[in-house]
Design goal:
211 residues
C-alpha cells in the first residue's frame, strides 16, 4: 500500500493526523499529488484547520481544475472563515462540475442563509435534501437549516415540518428541538414550546445568532 492509499484509509477510519502525514508523504514523493492535496485538505477541514484546508484545496484545484470535491472543501472552509461570497462562488463551480454533489448545495444554501438570501437558501437546501438520501445525520442538519429559513420568512408550518423531520432523522439534534420550540412559541403553542426548549437544554444546546 502506497502513502496515498494509507492516507485515504486513515481518513476513512477518522485518524486525521495519520491521514495528513501519509498525504504529506505522497505529496513529497509527487505521488498522485492532486488527490493527495484533496485528501489532506479534507482532513484539515475535518480538524477545523480552515486556512490549511483552503491552501491545500487551492493547490488541488490548480492541479485538477475539474475537481468538484476540492471546490466543495474550499467552500466549506471559506464559509467557516466568514467568506460567504467566496463559499457561494466555489459551491457554484462545484455543482457546475458535478450537479449531484449534495454537500455543495448544502454549503451554498447555508452561505445564502448567512447572507439572508432566503429564496436562494431554500432552493439550495431543498436540492441538498433531495440528494442526501444516504446520509441521515447530514440530512437532519440540512432540514434544520431550511426550517430556520422558513422561520425567517414566517412560514412556521413548513418550519415545524422541517424541524420534526430533522429530529426524526437524528433524535439528538438539539438545534432542531430549540428552533422548533421557537416556532411553537410564535404560533402560541406554549406547552409544546416549553417541552422542546427543555429537550434542547438537556441535549446541551447553546443558542447562537445563526444556525
Amino acid at each position: 500500500m502506497d502513502a496515498l492509499d494509507r492516507g485515504i484509509e486513515a481518513a476513512a477510519r477518522g485518524d486525521l493526523d495519520a491521514a495528513i502525514l501519509a498525504c504529506t508523504e505522497a505529496i513529497e514523493a509527487k505521488q498522485r499529488r492532486p488527490l493527495a492535496y484533496r485528501y489532506r485538505a479534507h482532513s484539515y477541514m475535518r480538524k477545523g484547520e480552515w486556512d490549511r484546508a483552503i491552501a491545500d484545496a487551492t493547490k488541488a484545484i490548480a492541479l485538477e481544475p475539474d475537481a468538484a470535491n476540492a471546490f466543495a472543501t474550499r467552500a466549506y472552509s471559506l464559509f467557516q472563515n466568514g467568506d460567504y461570497d467566496g463559499a457561494i462562488s466555489d459551491c457554484t463551480e462545484a455543482v457546475r462540475i458535478d450537479p449531484s454533489l449534495s454537500a455543495a448545495y448544502a454549503y451554498r444554501g447555508h452561505a445564502h442563509l448567512r447572507r439572508h438570501q432566503w429564496k436562494c437558501a431554500i432552493a439550495d437546501l431543498t436540492r441538498a435534501i433531495e440528494l442526501s438520501v444516504d446520509f441521515p445525520s447530514n440530512k437532519s442538519a440540512i432540514h434544520c437549516h431550511r426550517g430556520y429559513v422558513f422561520c425567517q420568512t414566517g412560514e412556521f408550518d413548513k418550519a415545524m415540518e422541517d424541524f420534526t423531520e430533522a429530529i426524526r432523522l437524528n433524535p439528538r439534534n438539539a438545534e432542531a428541538f430549540y428552533n422548533r420550540a421557537i416556532s411553537y412559541q410564535e404560533i402560541g403553542e406554549t406547552s409544546k414550546s416549553e417541552k422542546d426548549f427543555a429537550q434542547a437544554k438537556m441535549l446541551g444546546y447553546t443558542p447562537t445568532k445563526n444556525p
